[in-house]
Each structure stands twice: as C-alpha cells, then as structure tokens.
Amino acid sequence: MGKNDFYTWTIDKGDYLRDEYSTLSYQKKIITRKKIKITLFTFIYCGIISAITYLIFVTL
C-alpha cells in the first residue's frame, strides 16, 4: 500500500460503496415526498376547518 493508492480504488473491486442517501436524485425524491405530504395535510386541515366553520354557522 502506497501513500497515494486511493487513485486505484474502484466500486467494482468493492473498495468503497456509493451512499444512496447523498445522491441528488435521492434528495429530490425526499423533497418531493415532503412537499406532497405538506400539501395533503394542508388540504385536510382546510377541509376540517371549513366543515367546523360551516357547522357553527348553520347551527346559529
């Protein structure tokens, strides 16, 4: 082992493994999931608030 043997490292030989969590495509997937989740929760929250408000005004 030389002091600069890291130039000969390859994935094929198993010298190191690619971290899937740090890839750009994985980060985009996580951001997309988070946006979808926030959008769904927003619609559900607005629906519940609208239903409660409607019931309050109808009973008055």
How do the strands and helices of this protein lay out in sequence?
Blueprint: H1 24-59
Structure, explained:
- With 60 residues, the protein is mostly helical.
- The chain is 60% helix and 0% strand.
- The chain is rod-shaped and about 80 Å long.
- It starts with 23 loop residues before the first helix and ends with a helix.
N-C termini distance = 84 Å
Beta-strand percentage? under 5%
N-to-C series of helices and strands: H
What is the strand tally? 0
Silhouette:
rod-shaped
Largest sheet: none
Question: What distinguishing features does this structure have?
Answer:
mainly alpha, 60 residues
Question: Can I get a quick summary?
Answer:
This protein has 60 residues and is mainly alpha-helical. The protein has one helix at 24-59.
